UniProtKB/TrEMBL annotation:
<keyword id="KW-0067">ATP-binding</keyword>
<comment type="similarity">
    <text>Belongs to the KdpC family.</text>
</comment>
<dbReference type="GO" id="GO:0005886">
    <property type="term" value="C:plasma membrane"/>
</dbReference>
<keyword id="KW-0812">Transmembrane</keyword>
<keyword id="KW-0630">Potassium</keyword>
<keyword id="KW-0472">Membrane</keyword>
<comment type="function">
    <text>Part of the high-affinity ATP-driven potassium transport (or Kdp) system, which catalyzes the hydrolysis of ATP coupled with the electrogenic transport of potassium into the cytoplasm. This subunit acts as a catalytic chaperone that increases the ATP-binding affinity of the ATP-hydrolyzing subunit KdpB by the formation of a transient KdpB/KdpC/ATP ternary complex.</text>
</comment>
<dbReference type="InterPro" id="IPR003820">
    <property type="entry name" value="KdpC"/>
</dbReference>
<protein>
    <recommendedName>
        <fullName>Potassium-transporting ATPase KdpC subunit</fullName>
    </recommendedName>
</protein>
<dbReference type="GO" id="GO:0005524">
    <property type="term" value="F:ATP binding"/>
</dbReference>
<dbReference type="Pfam" id="PF02669">
    <property type="entry name" value="KdpC"/>
</dbReference>
<keyword id="KW-0813">Transport</keyword>
<feature type="transmembrane region" description="Helical">
    <location>
        <begin position="12"/>
        <end position="34"/>
    </location>
</feature>
<dbReference type="GO" id="GO:0008556">
    <property type="term" value="F:P-type potassium transmembrane transporter activity"/>
</dbReference>
<keyword id="KW-0633">Potassium transport</keyword>
<comment type="subunit">
    <text>The system is composed of three essential subunits: KdpA, KdpB and KdpC.</text>
</comment>
<keyword id="KW-1133">Transmembrane helix</keyword>
Length: 189
C-alpha cells in the first residue's frame, strides 16, 4: 500500500511541475525574450492586425503577391497537405486547376517557366513564403495592377530575400506578407 501512495504522490508532483510550472516558466521566458513571436507574429497595418508573418492568407488582389496554393484553404486551425500521391488523379486535377489559375493571373508566362511550387500546395497548406522565382513571375502582373515599376518590385524581392536554411538546405525564399505590406505602404493605402 505504501508503494501505491508513493506512486500517487509522484504522479501529482510531476503533473504539477511538468503540467503547470514548466509551461508557465517557458511561456514567461518566451514573452519576455521573444514577445513578437510568442504572440503569434501578428502584423499590423495602419494600427489594425492584418495577419501573421507565419501563416499564409488567401490573397486574390492582382496588385499583391499571392502565396502557394493551400490544401486546407488557408485555415490555420487545420494545417496539412492533401496527402495525394504522385499518381493520384485528384492530385493531377488539383495541379491542373492551380496551373490554370496561375496562367490566368500571370498572362504571358509560358507553362514551362512555372515552377511546381506555384501549383502544388505546401505540406502545411499555410506556408507564408514563396520562392524567388515564384515572386519574380508575379512582378509584371503586380506592376500593371499597381503602377509600381517592375524594378522597384524586384528590388523589394531582393531586399526581403531569405537565404538557405543553415546555409545549405532549401532555396531562397521571400515572405509574402512582407512584400505585400511594402506594396501597400508604397501605394499609401
Amino acid at each position: 500500500m505504501l508503494n501505491v501512495w508513493r506512486s500517487v504522490r509522484f504522479t501529482i508532483v510531476f503533473a504539477i511541475l511538468l503540467g503547470l510550472v514548466y509551461p508557465l516558466i517557458v511561456t514567461g521566458f518566451g514573452n519576455v525574450l521573444f514577445p513578437f513571436q510568442a504572440k503569434g507574429s501578428i502584423v499590423k497595418f495602419q494600427g489594425a492586425p492584418v495577419g501573421s508573418m507565419l501563416i499564409a492568407q488567401n490573397i486574390t488582389d492582382p496588385g499583391l503577391f499571392h502565396p502557394r496554393p493551400s490544401a486546407v484553404k488557408y485555415a490555420a486551425n487545420g494545417s496539412g497537405g492533401s496527402n495525394f500521391g504522385p499518381t493520384n488523379p485528384a492530385l493531377v486535377k488539383e495541379v491542373r486547376k492551380n496551373l490554370q489559375t496561375v496562367l490566368q493571373q500571370n498572362p504571358g508566362t509560358p507553362v514551362s517557366k512555372i515552377p511546381p511550387s506555384m501549383v502544388e500546395s505546401s505540406a502545411s497548406g499555410l506556408d507564408p513564403d514563396i520562392t524567388i522565382k515564384d515572386a519574380m513571375i508575379q512582378v509584371p502582373r503586380i506592376a500593371k495592377a499597381t503602377g509600381l515599376s517592375e524594378a522597384y518590385l524586384k528590388s523589394l524581392i531582393q531586399k526581403d530575400r531569405q537565404g538557405l536554411d543553415f546555409g545549405i538546405w532549401g532555396q531562397p525564399m521571400v515572405n509574402v506578407m512582407q512584400l505585400n505590406l511594402a506594396i501597400l505602404q508604397q501605394e499609401g493605402k
